[in-house]
Amino acid sequence: MRFLSLSLAALLALVACSTTPAVAPASAPGVAAAPAPSGPVPPVARRVPHPVTLHGDTRQDDYFWLREKENPEVRAYLEAEAAYTAAVMKPTEALQRKLYEEMLGRIQQTDLSVPYRKGGSLYYSRTEEGKQYPILCRKKGTLDVPEEVMLDLNVLAEGQKFLSLSDREVSDDGHLLAYSVDTTGFRQFTLQVKDLRTGKTGVERMEKVTSVVWAADNRTLFYVTEDAAKRPSKLWRHTLGTPSSEDVLVYEEKDERFTLGVQRSRSGEYLIASSRSSTTSEVRVWPARNPTAALTVVAPREQDHEYSVDHHGEQFYILTNSGGRNFRVVTAPVKSPGRANWKELIPHREAVLLQGLSLFKNHLMLYEFEAGLPHLSITDLKTRASHRISFSEPVYVVYPEMNEEWDTKLLRIAYQSPVTPPSIYDYDMVSRERKLLKQTPVLGGYDASRYQTERVMAEAKDGVKVPVNLVYRKGLKKDGSAPLLLMGYGAYGFPAFLGFNSNDVSLLERGVVLATAQIRGGSDLGKAWHDGGRMRNKMNTFTDFIASAEGLIAQGYTSKERLAIEGGSAGGLLMGAVMNLRPDLFKVVMAHVPFVDVLNTMSDASLPLTVGEFEEWGNPQVKEDYEYMRRYCPYTNVAARDYPTLLVKTSFNDSQVMYWEPAKWVAKLRALKTDKNPLLFQINMNAGHSGASGRYDRLKEVAFDQAFLLTQLGVAP
Question: In the annotation, is 61 catalytic?
Answer without folding.
Answer: no
